[in-house]
Structure formats: C-alpha cells, structure tokens
Amino acid sequence: HLGSNIFARVLAAQSLEVHPSILLELDHFRILINIGEGFQRLCLQHKIPMNYINNIFFTNFDWKHVGGLPGMLLTRSPSIGETWMYGTTETFQLFNEINNTTNNSLGQCRTFQLNETDCFEDIRPFHLNISAKYYHKKCHSDILTIIIFKFSKTSGK
User: Fold this and answer.
1) How many C-beta atoms surround the C-beta of residue 12 within 10 A?
2) Which of 1, 11, 55, 118 could link 31 by a cystine bridge, Cβ 3.0 to 4.6 Å?
C-alpha cells in the first residue's frame, strides 16, 4: 500500500545550469528521481532535509543524473536509517567508490540493480499543464517536466 496522498515536486527542470530532479512524496516515504550536480542547493531552496529522502532512482548514469550523489551522501546523517538506491551497475560502482573513500561512513544504503533494458528503454520527458488546484502548493510552476518510467522488474522491500 503506497498511501493515498502522492505529490510530485519538481526540484529542478532541465536548463543549462541544472538537470531534472523530481521528488515524489507519498504518505510515509519519498522517492527522489535523479540527483544532478547542485542538489544540496536545491534542498536548501525547497526546504527539504536530505535525511527526508529514503528512495533514490537513477534514470541514467552520467553526471547530469548522478553528479549530486557524492555531496548528498557526505551531507546526510549516517544514523537516519535505511536508504534504497535503484540504478545500473555504474551507479553502484560510484557509490562504492564514495563509500570506500569515506571509510564506510555513509550509513545504511541498500542498492537494487536494474538493467537498462528492463527499466530505462522507455524514458521520455514531456510537459504537463496543471492548474494550481492539482499540484502541491510548494511547486511554483504550472508546467511540470515529468518523466514517464517503464519499470518492468522492480521489487518491493
């Protein structure tokens, strides 16, 4: 059961300076989609504590999508509990390198490897016009850049 309240908060839309990052907020957990460089600044702007995020999906392995991972992992409190990360092999190699560099001080992060052919072949951005009454009050734009996912093989906890 995912809960009855689901909000999509666009933390960053595609531009020359930042890369797309979306936070899905459900009753009891949060799902962050991509962590571009400058993610810590976005958290400050949107008043989101980094310890608030407990599931992270990476749609691709390039710096646009994972560049904020090192800063996020180093800033979070190691005592926050479990964080799940979903992505490709390269994403977890980066995570392991960061964890080894910091003497395994990143807290409880669990990884779930997704194959690109299983999950990421059908990702495409589109624009959705939403009137003010339909989106979370903290989203300040009425044009949201949303990403459609085809997760054919994901598992629950």
Assistant:
1) 21
2) 55
**CATH number for the domain that contains residue 66:** 3.60.15.10
Q: Which residue has the higher pLDDT, 59 or 16?
A: 59
> What is the pTM for the complete model shown?
0.64
Ranking 84-93, 103-112, 117-126, 147-156 by mean pLDDT, the lowest is: 147-156
Domain count within the chain: 1
Q: Which residues pair with 21 in a beta bridge?
A: 12
Specify if 26 maps to a domain: yes
What is the per-residue pLDDT across 28-47, written as a single tens digit (0 to 9) for each? Answer: 778 888 888 888 888 888 88
Residue 70 included in any domain:
yes
Q: Give per-residue pLDDT as tens, 4-23.
A: 567 777 776 666 566 678 88
